[in-house]
Amino acid sequence: MYKLVLLRHGESVWNLENRFTGWTNVELTEQGRTEARRAGQQLREAGFAFDIAYTSVLKRANHTLWLALAELDREWIQVEHSWRLNERHYGALQGLNKAETAAEYGEAQVIAWRRSYDVPPPPLADGDERLAIGDARYADLAPGEFPRAECLKDTVERFLPYWHDTIAPTIRAGKSTLIVAHGNSLRALVKYLDDLSDEAIVDLNIPTGIPLVYELDAELKPTAHYYLGDEAAIAEAIAGVAKQGRAA
Ligand SMILES: O=C(O)[C@@H](CO)OP(=O)(O)O
């Protein structure tokens, strides 16, 4: 049996401001840093001693990982970064307030943009300053491959090759593995691991900064999964994420 831990970054500045974030490289808030440290403490108390960590190229996930590893006295382990673990690209919604967008376009449209499997948000236009083409983080992404907007299906398709080629073999080799990523890149992984339908994934929300443990069999099929921490607080945090798309 293997254990894999998934951790969404702590609260970011744009989580706090309730803005669509995607590939925008925003900082953690003080609360987000506290969540990251607490996640590290919970993992330490639960006895985790990671050999390797995977994360995105976005600082809210990277800083969460550093803070959690510091609590675990594990800053020295191998850390691999990939844009394939980035948040889903939110296209032209990036920067907009979610509640204001719901007031303007309707809550049903915002639910479709936020949670449906195959409805992409409106794409970024050529020349939009929010397109990070040319950023050194994305040197291995050809301009033609650079996402302008992604639905969750697109995120699954760009993430799964990294899972199959890099992360899964590491877990099978017996390395204790931590993935620190984003709400929707982790939803992509959970959809795959739990074989959730395109309908079931709509209702899945992942809270910031709470470790999610997966127990996997020899074929890396989940036998159990659970969050670490207080059940009522976790339920409240999950409901809070779902509510972000309501009109104010
Ligand atoms: O804005 C985003 O990039 C994501 C995560 O914060 O938001 P949502 O939960 O609306 O998909």
From TrEMBL:
Record key words, sorted: Gluconeogenesis, Glycolysis, Isomerase
Pathway terms, separated by semicolons: Carbohydrate degradation; glycolysis; pyruvate from D-glyceraldehyde 3-phosphate: step 3/5
Catalytic activity: (2R)-2-phosphoglycerate = (2R)-3-phosphoglycerate
Residues reported to bind substrate: 8-15, 21-22, 60, 87-90, 98, 114-115, 183-184
Record keyword GTP-binding present: no
Single GO MF descriptor: phosphoglycerate mutase activity
Self-association state and partner proteins as the record states: Homodimer.
HAMAP family, per database record: PGAM_GpmA
Cross-referenced NCBIfam families: pgm_1, PRK14115.1
Protein name as annotated: 2,3-bisphosphoglycerate-dependent phosphoglycerate mutase
Gene name as annotated: gpmA
